[in-house]
Each structure stands twice: as C-alpha cells, then as structure tokens.
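Appendix B: complex inputs.
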Amino acid sequence: MLGKCILRAITGNLGVTGGEIYSDHPYHLNWIDNLKFDALLNHPDRTRDNVSAGEYPITSVRGYRMFREAMAKVYPKGFGPAHYMLLPASWAIWQAVLEGRPYPIKAICTQGATPS
Amino acid sequence: MNVSDARGTYRVLTSEKLDLHFAMDLTMQPTASLADYVLPAAGWLERPNLRTDWGFSNLYQCTDAAVEPLCERRDDYWLWAQLGKRLGMAEEWPETLEGMFDLFLEGTGMNFRGHLEKNIENGFTFGLLRRGTGPTSRQDLPPTRERSSFPLHPRKAGIRSLLRLRRASPFALFHPGAGQGLSPHPDKRLQGAGVLAFEL
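Resulting structure:
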C-alpha cells in the first residue's frame, strides 16, 4: 500500500484524473480552524515533549511540528487527524508515574476508562 | 483507557506516587472506583451533538439533547473547557458545548440552534453541503491540473434503496449508473440502507 502511494507520487499522479484524487476539505464546516493545533503546539506551558517522544519520535510534539510544517505546504490550514501524534504511549505514562522517567507524572484524568 | 496490562494499570492508579486521579464517566466502573474524584458525565441523550465525520466530508448532523442531564451530570466539554480556561486559553473555549458547535457551523450561516429549528419535526437536521459555495473557497487548496471530485449533482447522484437495487440486478451496485430511473420503494420500512449510485 505504501509502495503504491509512493509510486503515485513520484510518477506525478497526485491530484490528477486517473490518479490519486485529492479530497477537498469541507467548505462550510470550520473544522480545521477550530482544532487550534498551533495553539496547542505553541502553548507557553509546553516546555518539554511527551513521555514517549524518545522511543517513538513520530508520535511526539517534535514529530507533530515537523508533520505540520510539511503539511502546510499542501494544506496551509493543517490537517485534522494528526492530533493523535501528540498522544504518548500508555506504557510510558505508567513508567513516568512509577519511575519518574523521563519526568514524573503526578496527575491522571481517565474517561471511558474500561479496563481490559 | 483501553490499554493492555490491567495489572500494571491498577498498580499505577493505586500508586502513592500519583498525587491525583480524577475520572469522568457514565457509570462507576472499576477504573473510576480507583479515582480520588469521580465526575458524572452526561449521557448521549442528555447533550447536544454535532456529527461531522471528523472534518473529512461536507456531511454534518445536528442532534439536540432529549432531556436535561440528571442530577449533577455534565458533558465532557465542560471539563475540558474548565481546564483550558485555567491554562490561560479562555478565549479559545466558548461557555457551552453548543457554543463550540456554533463556531464549527459558522460557515453555514446558521448556528446550531438554527439548524435544529429548521427541521425540528424529526428532532435533528441533516446537511449535505455543496462544494465551492462557502466563505472559504478552492483557492485555499493547491492547484491541480484537473480537479475531480465525488459527484454530488442531483441528476447524477441519488440515494436509492439497497433492496430495490439488489432486486433490479445482482451486479447493479457495482455498475455505473446503477439504480437510475428506479422509483423509491413504496414501503418506507424497506429503505433503511442506501447507496450512492452515480454515472461516470
């Protein structure tokens, strides 16, 4: 699947009839504008990356920022689902609570927290 | 928190190293029972909702709360708005969930309440928006040699009864122009499912 995507891109078949067609963003729903990803990224209290950024750089604040900059060249307003990139791995949260690595987490909020 | 390692989760949520654990949930399930504070959440019948397909399409659906939240139950927007305001982002968070929906619907020229009143008989409103007529326009998007999009023209696209199409031809669903010229099935109960049939 990834290979096919890459082939479409390097053969100039993105955004053309017969190739991979870009889908348009909704025009009436102000979805992207209201996600405020840039406000999240640039919040003055954000002084460090998430707790699993060292192990999984792509799902990190730094990874998201790089993704955001790259996507801005295609979609200036950004792209929606990438907020998942800001979520740390759960095992790293447990490690941060129990061992304080890479920094301690002292408070947790759970929602829809069905145990498994 | 649907994560593996239930024992590990239990160890963390009962650890003395954790200063605070608060839960917001519909029921007092096991994880919430470990929390220092439990905030009762409003159920889906107790809150308005705006379905938007995660911003991927022009489809949206507004539904109103059927009843007021019981007791002290509150929607989770309230929780995150309170936290957001305390983190210095007060201007980003409207007072209510409906206020946030109004921001999302600004481009439609009508607020959330207006959409509900437009079609109050059914209790919800359903909008399929046309392309290229909103305040934001195609110039926001990168230029392409020939833009193609999913056809939404009423002459070319239509919602047809799935059962009706199956009756017409077993391959009708996969054919260009499938279902064209078919009249809606007289029995509304048979029209639960639909398919977008279109001509190429």
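The first strand of chain A starts at residue 107 and ends at 111.
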